[in-house]
Amino acid sequence: MSFISGETLAEHASRDSCWIIVHSKVYDVTDFLDEHPGGSKIILKYAGKDATEAYEPIHPPNAITDNLPIEKHIGAIDPSTIVKAIKEVTEEDKRRQALMDARPPLDEILNLHDFEAVAKAVLPPKAWAYYSSASDDEITIRENRAAFQRVWFRPRILRDVTSVDWSTTILGCKSSLPIYISATALGKLGHPDGELNLTRAAAKHGVIQMIPTLASCSFDEIVDAATPGQPLFLQLYVNRDREITKKYVQHAEKRGVKALFITVDAPQLGRREKDMRMKFVDDGAGAKVQENQKDVKKDQGVARAISSFIDPSLSWKDIPWFRSITNMHIILKGVATPEDAILAYEAGCQGIVLSNHGGRQLDTSRSGLENLVDIVAALKTKGPWPNPNFAVFVDGGVRRASDVLKAIALGASAVGVGRGFLYAFSSYGQEGVERAIEILRDEFEMNMRLLGARSISEIVPEMVDASALRSHAGLTPTDNLYNTTYQPLSLAAFKNKL
C-alpha cells in the first residue's frame, strides 16, 4: 500500500472528489456519499481530513472496509505530512468534564441503578439517547423492569446457609454467576475502550461475555483481549450476503467462541424516538434501511444508520444451514411464544433467549419473564425438565440479583444483563464493570441466604409467587430508583423564534 501525503489528501476535499482518513488509511468515499446511512454532510465535513474520531464511536471497525470496493482503498497516510486539528472544547465538553470529575467514588456506588444515574449525567446526549432509547411509546422497556416487581418470594427458613454457591454452568461453560453479559452495540459511544472493558472485567471475575455484531471494537480485538480459555459467546445479526455471515461465524468458531446467539426479533429495527430526535444522522441522510425499501426518512437515528445489512428474509429454513456451517451451540435470541420455542427445539437448536431486544423492537410485547412461564410449560411437554440439551435464557430489565433468582425459579437457565454493564463502563470504565459484578455477587449471597437456597439447583418454582405476573395495570409496586433514572419521551419541539 502506497503512502499518501497530506498535500495530496487536501486536493480531494469536495463532493466531486472526497477522500478521508480512517485509522491512518485513506479512502475515496466520493461514490458512497449519497449511500451513507448517516447522510453525506457528516462525511463532507471531514473531506480531506482525518475522520477517525467521528467515525469510530458509531461504526463497527470494519464498516468502511466492508462497504467500499478495494479500489477505493487509496493507501496509508504519511503521518509526517498531517497537521493535527485542534479540537474545539465546547461549553458542553467542559460541563461533562466537570461532572466526570465530580462522580461519586466507586465505593459509594451501591447498585446498578447508581451506574445508570451517573451514565445519564456524564454521557454525551446523543450517546445517552442511543443507549437508553426503546421503541414507540417505550411501554415494553418499562414493563421489562416492572414485571420483576410482580413476582414475590416465598423464602424457606431454618436451613444451614453458612455456605452458598451461586456459580453455574452456561452452555457447558463455567460461570461465577448465573448471568452473562448480553450484547449491546457501539461501546465506544460510552468509553474509548468500548467493549474491551467488558472483556477484561469478565476475565477477572469468571463471567461470560457475549460479543455483539455491532461492537465498536473489532471481533478479533475483543478476542485478543480475552485470557486463554476465557469463554465467549457471539451475537449475530444475519447479513443478506450469506457468504459474509458464513465467514464471520466460522472465523468466530476458529477463534474459540462457544455459542452463536442469532438475533431473530429484528428483521427491521424499531423506531427509537429518543435516538431519532437526537439526529445522529444529518439532513442529507437518505439511504435505504433494508433491501427494496424506499423513501426512508432522514431522521432515523444511529440505530437505523448502522443496520442496513440485516436480512429481513431470515426464516426457519435457514436454521439447517446454520447447523451445517458451525458446530457451535446455536441459540435463537428473541423468542416470545411457546409455539416458536417448540419450533426452535424441534429445529435442533441448543437454546433460546426470551427477549424483546431491551424494549427496542415491538412495543407492548410482553416481557421475557412473563413469557418464561408459558414457554417452560410448553417445553416440559417435550421431555424431562430441566432439559440438559436445551437452555432457556431471559434478558431485559435486570437490575438486581433478586431479578435473576426470580427468573431461575421460574425455569431460566441463566439471565442476560446488557444495559447494566453498559452504564457501568460508560461511567467508570473497566473498574465500573468489576464493581457491578461485585455488587451482583454480594446481592446473590444475601438473597440466596434469605431465600434458603444454598445453590442454584435449590432455587425452585415453589420459592416464588408469580400469580400477579400477568396483571399489567395497577398491581405493580413503584420502583423509585428506576423511575428516577428513566427519561420520559418528549414531543416535537417548537423552533425558538417566538
From TrEMBL:
SUPFAM superfamilies on file: Cytochrome b5-like heme/steroid binding domain, FMN-linked oxidoreductases
Protein keywords: Flavoprotein, FMN, Heme, Iron, Metal-binding, Mitochondrion, Oxidoreductase, Transit peptide, Transport
Reaction(s) this enzyme catalyzes, per UniProt: (S)-lactate + 2 Fe(III)-[cytochrome c] = 2 Fe(II)-[cytochrome c] + pyruvate + 2 H(+)
Compartments it resides in: Mitochondrion intermembrane space
Transmembrane segments: none
Cofactors named for this entry: FMN; heme b
The keyword Oxidoreductase is annotated on this UniProt entry: yes
Superkingdom field: Eukaryota
Gene Ontology MF annotations: heme binding; L-lactate dehydrogenase (cytochrome) activity; metal ion binding
GO cellular component: mitochondrial intermembrane space
Protein's recorded name: L-lactate dehydrogenase (cytochrome)
Organism of this sequence: Psilocybe cubensis
